[in-house]
User: Which sequence fits this backbone?
């Protein structure tokens, strides 16, 4: 198990999602062949992969739907590790042993994870980042095997975001639910932003149904790297994401952003402060995690968001007094997130910082 011993010695280590447990019964894979796709989850943190033409026990076409996309997965294929909706399985040191998917399922949601973990298992975060946008980046679309080697056999010929979109269109055929929501953690924020734009463009072009454009996108402790990228016409990834978010907002998509660590504040990370102005922005204060464990704090936003669906929307406070409004969480109404996104305010956690349990959390509203 990898530990982050010094916050700023190596930013790369902050992204490591260490495989503390052997592979979960949820979303199991063998690591010998490339496995990507949407796994639909049911109560108890169990899952079934979407396969075209086959029924799925955990998906109903009439239900609102959340799809989560993870980020960088350095060195995780060796132990067949995959993130799930149990925080303890994601982070044995800091995560509560709660199957957060149960809250969503009990409220009538479809809940899925799009796994691209073998593609995202790169030693350098920028190599995984490039795959989100192009199939011809520094490492192409190679994928990692359990023995640590890389392979191009059966590798996608499109970017990881396009790979998701292709799967999404198949998995959501006949969808009549009230809402599609995407959530992306770390590099996964770029996956959901790029994917939402690709889907929206196809909706506008009339090639897919209007209700497949996501209504809401959650950026969970997002990461963008610094510097211009040749594969983006010399734009920064954060810069292009801001352009996409700005465009998607005109299409009615609500964006919420949760910051829980300092990963973008030093080293190769881009703080991308302009994104704060575009989203319903909330800063979490996970004081129950050691200040030296920025990797743990990085994962806190992911686990808190899914956990927060189990409780009412957190109270908004100003100068210590309740305003009668709510702060941001997964349980907060999408209409409220839209209002927060378009306001001149931001929010920071001012109660409940010493536990992972969202039930006592409150958020102070301040000007951006």
Assistant:
């Amino acid at each position: 198990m990898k530990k982050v011993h010094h916050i700023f010695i190596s930013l790369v280590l902050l992204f490591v999602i260490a495989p503390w447990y052997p592979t979960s019964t949820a979303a199991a894979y063998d690591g010998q062949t490339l496995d990507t796709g949407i796994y639909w989850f049911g109560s108890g943190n169990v899952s079934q992969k979407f396969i075209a033409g086959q029924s799925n026990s955990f998906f109903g076409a009439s239900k609102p739907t959340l799809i989560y996309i993870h980020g960088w997965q350095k060195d995780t294929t060796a132990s067949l590790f995959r993130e799930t909706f149990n925080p303890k399985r994601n982070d044995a040191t800091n995560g509560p042993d709660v199957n957060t998917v149960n809250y969503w399922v009990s409220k009538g949601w479809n809940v899925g994870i799009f796994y691209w973990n073998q593609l995202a298992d790169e030693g350098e975060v920028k190599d995984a980042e490039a795959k989100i946008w192009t199939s011809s980046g520094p490492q192409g679309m190679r994928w990692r095997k359990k023995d640590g080697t890389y392979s191009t056999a059966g590798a996608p010929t499109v970017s990881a975001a396009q790979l998701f979109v292709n799967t999404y269109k198949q998995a959501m055929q006949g969808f009549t639910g009230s809402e599609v929501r995407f959530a992306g953690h770390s590099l996964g924020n770029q996956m959901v932003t790029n994917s939402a734009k690709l889907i929206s463009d196809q909706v506008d072009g009339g090639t897919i149904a209007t209700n497949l454009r996501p209504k809401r996108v959650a950026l969970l402790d997002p990461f963008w790297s610094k510097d211009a990228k040749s594969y983006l016409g010399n734009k920064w990834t954060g810069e292009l994401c801001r352009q996409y978010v700005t465009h998607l907002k005109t299409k009615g998509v609500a964006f919420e952003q949760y910051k829980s660590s300092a990963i973008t504040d030093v080293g190769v990370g881009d703080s991308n402060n302009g994104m704060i102005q575009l989203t319903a922005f909330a800063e979490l204060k996970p004081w129950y995690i050691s200040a030296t464990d920025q990797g743990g704090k990085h994962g806190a936003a992911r686990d808190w968001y899914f956990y927060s669906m189990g409780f009412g929307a957190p109270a908004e406070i100003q100068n210590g007094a309740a305003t009668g409004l709510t702060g941001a969480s997964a349980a907060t109404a999408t209409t409220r997130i839209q209002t927060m996104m378009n306001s001149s305010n931001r929010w920071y956690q001012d109660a409940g910082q010493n536990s992972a349990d969202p039930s006592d959390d409150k958020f102070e509203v301040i000007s951006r």
